[in-house]
Amino acid sequence: MTRTLVLVRHGQSEWNLKNLFTGWKDPDLTDKGIEEARIAGHRLKEYGLHFGTAFTSELYRAQRTLSILLEELGQPHIPTVRDAALNERDYGDLSGLNKDDARAKWGEEQVLLWRRSYDIAPPGGESLKDTGARVWPFYIHRILPKVLSGDNVVVAAHGNSLRALVMALEGMSPADIVAEEISTGIPIVYRLNADSTVAEKTVLSH
């Protein structure tokens, strides 16, 4: 299988479990998150994938997910690039707050706008559009050339940085991407055409 790109959102983090806005904060994985990463690696192994390069963010939960996944695949030492361009969106003033407390303070509608809209940023933070503005150039200049050269590439990152990538890969509109959810620990396998468009997409659900 050539020109294959796999996207994996990190396993459940301690702050996912506590229902907190995480953003650029750096909690570890829960036991469930560790297991999700193991299962993701197992699924990719069953699928017969071997990777030449890995990319991840500067945040520990994504790095640890990648490490566990590659260990499970028997490929723990492949070249790995860590870059803040793949970090989760910065939730600004919401970071560390319980989502229910935020709704009580600002109202359900406002918090939903901050969480799910394309171009409305929370106070002091980034919108999905802002996140895309750093993810897309990194993808074009660093990740895509590897994939198009025939390398199989895995990216372990975050819900919103991956939503921005999926938006670009699948040609989604801002309206489409609002409803797109990326589950923790579920690999999404894309096979690309030579012109970088998507030939095939497979979700390796548990």
From TrEMBL:
One GO process term, biological-process aspect: glycolytic process
Reaction(s) this enzyme catalyzes, per UniProt: (2R)-2-phosphoglycerate = (2R)-3-phosphoglycerate
HAMAP family: PGAM_GpmA (MF_01039)
Residues the UniProt record annotates as site (Transition state stabilizer): 158
Binding positions (substrate): 9-16, 22-23, 61, 88-91, 99, 115-116, 159-160
Catalytic activity, EC: 5.4.2.11
GO MF terms held by the record: phosphoglycerate mutase activity
Assembly with partners or alone: Homodimer.
Enzyme class: isomerase
Protein name: 2,3-bisphosphoglycerate-dependent phosphoglycerate mutase
Active-site residues, record numbering mapped to chain: 10, 88
NCBIfam families: pgm_1 (TIGR01258), PRK01295.1 (NF002339)
Organism: Aureimonas glaciei
Function: Catalyzes the interconversion of 2-phosphoglycerate and 3-phosphoglycerate.
UniProt xrefs under Gene3D superfamilies: Phosphoglycerate mutase-like (3.40.50.1240)
Similarity-based family: Belongs to the phosphoglycerate mutase family. BPG-dependent PGAM subfamily.
Lineage start: Bacteria, Pseudomonadati, Pseudomonadota, Alphaproteobacteria, Hyphomicrobiales
Keyword annotations from UniProtKB, A to Z: Gluconeogenesis, Glycolysis, Isomerase
The encoding gene: gpmA
Keyword Glycoprotein attributed: no
Pathway annotation: Carbohydrate degradation; glycolysis; pyruvate from D-glyceraldehyde 3-phosphate: step 3/5
InterPro entries attached to this UniProt entry: His_Pase_superF_clade-1 (IPR013078), His_PPase_superfam (IPR029033), PG/BPGM_mutase_AS (IPR001345), Phosphogly_mut1 (IPR005952)
